[in-house]
What we know:
Strand content: under 5%
Oligomer: single chain
Radius of gyration: 16 Å
Bound molecules: protoporphyrin IX containing FE
Mean pLDDT: 98
Distance between the termini: 25 Å
Low-confidence stretches: none
Amino acid sequence: MVTGFIGLMGISAVTKKLGGYANTKLHGILASFGLICVLLGLWVIWKNKELHGKDHITTTHALMGIITIACAVGPAIVGAVFLHPDFGIDKTNQQFRFAHKWFGRIVIASAYVTGFLGLKHMTSDILVLLTYAVPLMILGPMALLD
Ligand code: HEM
């Protein structure tokens, strides 16, 4: 989840800021690989729970995680179908561009918070929690905002 949402999707957002044809394609590729990582991660978590006979979606972290993952599919579809620089069917549509950009940002930010809630289930060590949260609080706005 961290590799997909924070690593790949985060880098993809920064790449898009650089602008231009090649960077837009690279943005799409990185974000799509991010989504694949996230979906694989979800599958592994789900299977592992089944294997150990545990219930699904029992915490706020899990609920937020499922919603965030479901929402991450939206920007991927809109990006690939409508905005792709080669074959996007409506790539100059400002409404789609705006919606994709802001929905994508909200999804990635929501993953930051979801990850923090997950870590809180694993530890109450303030140093560990800060090690996760502080870099994201500093770098997150730089990656996601203009
Ligand atoms: C899970 C998949 C995706 C996520 C989470 C995502 C997220 C984002 C984010 C956060 C931005 C804003 C970047 C900034 O701060 O300037 C953005 C912009 C953009 N993305 Fe994606 N993206 C995804 C997939 C794609 C794909 C597959 C394409 C197709 C190549 C694409 C094309 C674009 C374009 C053209 C923009 C610029 C929109 C504008 O500012 O006018 N995205 N995306």
